[in-house]
Design brief:
Layout (H helix, E strand, L loop, with lengths): L2 E4 L4 E4 L6 H8 L17 E6 L9 H4 L7 E3 L9 E5 L4 H4 L1
Parallel strand pairs: 1-5
Antiparallel strand pairs: 1-2, 3-4, 3-5
The structure holds FE2/S2 (inorganic) cluster (FES).
FE2/S2 (inorganic) cluster binds next to loops.
């Protein structure tokens, strides 16, 4: 099973391949916002994969709809395919206003 580390929170564990990053956060107790509950409509579940980004599933068209910056993914859409190191990404307040 892939090893998953939330580097900014000191949380780690092993989860089945295909688990979404949001599911991993919930299972491991990492803090990751999910206002829409994983429907892909809020973009509050942003993460940056800083170790082995190639071990996340390809970017979904839904993710391209948001201007999140290079390497930033939606945790509810990105699936874990191998060992990864992640950081949660805070949305600038101006985006939420
Ligand atoms: S939880 Fe809302 S877009 Fe991911």
């Amino acid at each position: 099973m892939p090893k998953v580390v939330f580097l900014d929170q000191g949380v780690r564990g092993e989860l089945p391949e295909g688990t979404t990053v949001l599911e991993a956060a919930r299972h491991l107790g990492a803090r990751l916002s999910s206002i829409c509950g994983g429907a892909g409509t809020c973009s509050t579940c942003r993460v940056e994969c800083v170790v082995n980004p190639q071990n996340l599933s390809p970017v979904e068209p839904l993710e391209d709809a948001y201007d999140m910056g290079s390497g930033v993914r939606l945790g509810c859409q990105a699936r874990i395919l191998g060992d990864v190191g992640l950081r949660t990404v805070r949305i600038p307040k101006a985006v939420l206003d």
